Amino acid sequence: NAGVTQTPKFRVLKTGQSMTLLCAQDMNHEYMYWYRQDPGMGLRLIHYSVGEGTTAKGEVPDGYNVSRLKKQNFLLGLESAAPSQTSVYFCASRPQGRTEAFFGQGTRLTVV
Amino acid sequence: AQTVTQSQPEMSVQEAETVTLSCTYDTSESNYYLFWYKQPPSRQMILVIRQEAYKQQNATENRFSVNFQKAAKSFSLKISDSQLGDTAMYFCAFIAQGGSEKLVFGKGTKLTVNP
């Protein structure tokens, strides 16, 4: 049981490049979340999903897109990376009817 | 919209002493849960304790306990007999179950336990 797995763990991008972060969970969880963590800012919700095929905006959605085509995967896309998107990104999942969230190990993204 | 506020960016405590971390929140939801998560230097997010809003009794987990004041929308974490391994970032979090299902975090408090 792998839990929540984020791919990649580290990445350096040049300004303007695009990339996709993958979050995969093998626990059949209904809800999935993408956060960014910056010093002094805590975890800020980017986008989330309440089920396969659904997505919703969080607190800081600008510059990001997401998709949940399969229940087990939640993709976070950066179409044109900017230095302000340098951050540590966390994915989390949660089962329906339960409140405990399970987190991935994080992805450190640097945009130069 | 739900908001979570942690007013103490950093705190320190001597080993074996007690420390309290503060958290306030704002919501119009009636069915919600509050959490404290711990994030050590490894970056792993660890659930420390959970409180259901409709329960008046404060949650406890070994050395960790909360003071939940629903009317004041306050949710503080008390760590007793602090240990060096308690050194970490602590995040207060909120979820309105059955509502938006958004899991919202505060900015965190960096706790250092000194020997």
Terminal residue distance of chain A: 36 Å
Query: Beta-strand percentage of chain B?
Result: over 45%
Estimated share of beta-strand residues of chain A: over 45%
Mind describing the biggest β-sheet of chain A? 7 strands, mixed
The value of Rg of chain B in angstroms is 14 Å
Tally the helices of chain B: 0
Broad shape of chain B:
globular
The total of helices of chain A stands at: 0
Give helix and strand order of chain B, one letter per element, not per position: EEEEEEEEEEEE
Please report the two chains with the greatest interface, counting residues with C-beta closer than 8 angstroms to the partner's C-beta.
A-B, 24 and 21 residues
> Care to count the β-strands of chain B?
12
Q: What portion of residues of chain B is helical? A: under 10%
Distance between the termini of chain B: 41 Å
Average predicted confidence as pLDDT of chain A = 95
> Which regions of chain A contain 5 or more consecutive residues with pLDDT less than 50?
none
Structural class of chain A: mainly beta
Order of helices and strands of chain A: EEEEEEEEEEE
Task: Please summarize the sheet with the most strands of chain B.
Answer: 6 strands, mixed
Low-confidence stretches of chain B: none
Give the oligomer, counting copies of the same chain as homo and different chains as hetero: heterodimer
State the gist of this model.
The complex is a heterodimer of chains A (112) and B (115). By secondary structure, chain A is an all-beta fold.
